[in-house]
Amino acid sequence: MLYSWLFTGKKIYKDVAIQSLKFLLSKTFSETEITVISNKTWLHKDGKVGEFGEQPIDVAYTLMTLSKFYDIFTFDNYYSKMIIAFDWFLGKNRLHQIVYNPCTGGCYDGLENTHVNLNQGAESTVSYLMARLTMEKYKNI
Q1: Is 97 left (phi over 0), alpha (psi -120 to 50) or beta?
Q2: What pLDDT, in 10s, does the model give residues 95-133?
Q3: How many CA atoms lie within 13 A of 87 on its CB side?
Q4: For residue range 84-101, what is the model confidence (pLDDT) as tens digits?
Q5: Phi and psi of 87, rounded to 5°?
Q6: Helical pair 76-89 and 56-73, crossing angle rounded to 10 deg
Protein backbone atom coordinates (compact mmCIF):
# COMPACT_ATOMS: atom_id res chain seq x y z
CA MET A 1 0.00 0.00 0.00
CA LEU A 2 2.85 2.36 0.80
CA TYR A 3 4.38 1.86 -2.64
CA SER A 4 0.94 2.21 -4.25
CA TRP A 5 0.60 5.60 -2.57
CA LEU A 6 4.12 6.62 -3.61
CA PHE A 7 3.37 5.61 -7.20
CA THR A 8 -0.17 7.02 -7.52
CA GLY A 9 -0.37 9.72 -4.86
CA LYS A 10 -3.83 8.42 -3.86
CA LYS A 11 -4.40 9.22 -0.20
CA ILE A 12 -6.43 6.05 0.42
CA TYR A 13 -3.30 3.95 -0.16
CA LYS A 14 -1.32 6.05 2.29
CA ASP A 15 -4.05 5.76 4.91
CA VAL A 16 -4.35 1.99 4.49
CA ALA A 17 -0.56 1.57 4.61
CA ILE A 18 -0.26 3.51 7.87
CA GLN A 19 -3.24 1.77 9.48
CA SER A 20 -2.03 -1.68 8.39
CA LEU A 21 1.42 -1.09 9.84
CA LYS A 22 -0.09 0.34 13.02
CA PHE A 23 -2.16 -2.84 13.42
CA LEU A 24 0.82 -5.13 12.85
CA LEU A 25 2.99 -3.16 15.27
CA SER A 26 0.26 -3.32 17.93
CA LYS A 27 0.39 -7.13 17.70
CA THR A 28 4.17 -7.53 17.71
CA PHE A 29 5.71 -4.77 19.84
CA SER A 30 5.65 -3.93 23.51
CA GLU A 31 7.44 -0.85 24.85
CA THR A 32 10.74 -2.71 24.98
CA GLU A 33 10.48 -5.87 22.88
CA ILE A 34 9.35 -7.39 19.61
CA THR A 35 7.64 -10.78 19.52
CA VAL A 36 6.88 -11.69 15.93
CA ILE A 37 3.95 -13.85 14.94
CA SER A 38 4.93 -17.48 15.36
CA ASN A 39 5.59 -19.77 12.43
CA LYS A 40 3.80 -22.47 14.43
CA THR A 41 0.31 -20.96 14.55
CA TRP A 42 -1.89 -18.35 12.90
CA LEU A 43 -2.76 -15.11 14.58
CA HIS A 44 -6.54 -15.15 14.91
CA LYS A 45 -8.72 -12.09 15.43
CA ASP A 46 -8.41 -10.94 19.04
CA GLY A 47 -5.78 -13.64 19.53
CA LYS A 48 -2.40 -13.60 21.15
CA VAL A 49 0.85 -13.67 19.22
CA GLY A 50 2.46 -17.11 19.45
CA GLU A 51 5.32 -17.31 21.91
CA PHE A 52 7.62 -19.62 20.00
CA GLY A 53 8.72 -20.19 16.45
CA GLU A 54 10.01 -16.62 16.03
CA GLN A 55 12.26 -16.39 12.99
CA PRO A 56 14.93 -13.84 12.02
CA ILE A 57 13.34 -13.23 8.62
CA ASP A 58 10.20 -11.83 10.26
CA VAL A 59 12.22 -9.52 12.50
CA ALA A 60 14.38 -8.35 9.59
CA TYR A 61 11.45 -7.61 7.30
CA THR A 62 9.65 -5.77 10.10
CA LEU A 63 12.75 -3.66 10.62
CA MET A 64 13.10 -2.97 6.89
CA THR A 65 9.44 -1.98 6.65
CA LEU A 66 9.85 0.38 9.59
CA SER A 67 12.89 1.85 7.87
CA LYS A 68 10.92 2.66 4.72
CA PHE A 69 8.10 4.23 6.72
CA TYR A 70 10.61 6.20 8.81
CA ASP A 71 12.41 7.47 5.70
CA ILE A 72 9.13 8.78 4.31
CA PHE A 73 7.30 10.02 7.42
CA THR A 74 10.18 10.51 9.93
CA PHE A 75 8.04 9.40 12.88
CA ASP A 76 10.38 8.79 15.83
CA ASN A 77 8.19 5.87 16.86
CA TYR A 78 9.25 3.99 13.71
CA TYR A 79 12.92 4.57 14.44
CA SER A 80 12.65 3.47 18.08
CA LYS A 81 10.91 0.27 16.98
CA MET A 82 13.71 -0.35 14.46
CA ILE A 83 16.19 -0.33 17.34
CA ILE A 84 14.00 -2.69 19.37
CA ALA A 85 13.73 -5.04 16.38
CA PHE A 86 17.49 -5.05 15.75
CA ASP A 87 18.19 -5.65 19.42
CA TRP A 88 16.13 -8.87 19.14
CA PHE A 89 19.14 -10.38 17.36
CA LEU A 90 21.44 -9.25 20.17
CA GLY A 91 19.52 -10.86 23.03
CA LYS A 92 16.76 -8.39 23.84
CA ASN A 93 14.05 -10.93 23.14
CA ARG A 94 11.69 -12.95 25.31
CA LEU A 95 14.36 -15.62 26.00
CA HIS A 96 17.13 -13.07 26.61
CA GLN A 97 19.36 -15.08 24.28
CA ILE A 98 21.59 -13.83 21.48
CA VAL A 99 20.40 -14.89 18.03
CA TYR A 100 23.32 -13.46 16.03
CA ASN A 101 26.51 -15.47 16.52
CA PRO A 102 29.49 -13.08 16.49
CA CYS A 103 31.94 -16.01 16.47
CA THR A 104 30.75 -17.38 13.14
CA GLY A 105 29.08 -14.29 11.68
CA GLY A 106 25.99 -16.44 11.29
CA CYS A 107 22.55 -16.15 12.76
CA TYR A 108 20.64 -18.84 14.60
CA ASP A 109 17.34 -19.91 13.11
CA GLY A 110 15.18 -18.32 15.77
CA LEU A 111 13.48 -18.71 19.10
CA GLU A 112 11.61 -21.85 20.03
CA ASN A 113 9.50 -22.25 23.16
CA THR A 114 12.38 -22.63 25.62
CA HIS A 115 15.57 -22.28 23.59
CA VAL A 116 17.33 -20.82 20.59
CA ASN A 117 17.28 -23.00 17.47
CA LEU A 118 21.06 -23.40 17.01
CA ASN A 119 20.90 -24.17 13.31
CA GLN A 120 22.54 -21.33 11.37
CA GLY A 121 20.81 -21.44 8.01
CA ALA A 122 21.51 -19.11 5.12
CA GLU A 123 18.06 -17.50 5.34
CA SER A 124 18.61 -16.51 8.96
CA THR A 125 22.11 -15.20 8.32
CA VAL A 126 20.99 -13.18 5.30
CA SER A 127 18.09 -11.84 7.37
CA TYR A 128 20.46 -10.63 10.05
CA LEU A 129 22.74 -9.05 7.45
CA MET A 130 19.80 -7.24 5.80
CA ALA A 131 18.74 -5.92 9.21
CA ARG A 132 22.26 -4.81 10.03
CA LEU A 133 22.76 -3.09 6.68
CA THR A 134 19.45 -1.33 7.13
CA MET A 135 20.52 -0.05 10.55
CA GLU A 136 23.91 1.07 9.23
CA LYS A 137 22.37 3.93 7.31
CA TYR A 138 21.12 5.40 10.61
CA LYS A 139 24.36 5.11 12.57
CA ASN A 140 24.82 8.89 12.69
CA ILE A 141 21.36 9.62 14.10
Answers
A1: beta
A2: 999 999 999 999 999 999 899 999 999 999 999 999 999
A3: 15
A4: 999 999 999 999 999 999
A5: -65, -20
A6: 160
Task: Write down the domain spans for the chain.
Answer: 30-136
Q: What pLDDT shows up at residue 41?
A: 65
Amino acid at 63: L
Please state, in angstroms and rounded to a whole number, the distance separating the CA atoms of residues 34 and 37.
Answer: 10
- The CA distance from 80 to 140, in Å, is 14
pLDDT tens profile 17-43: 999 999 999 999 999 999 987 766 666
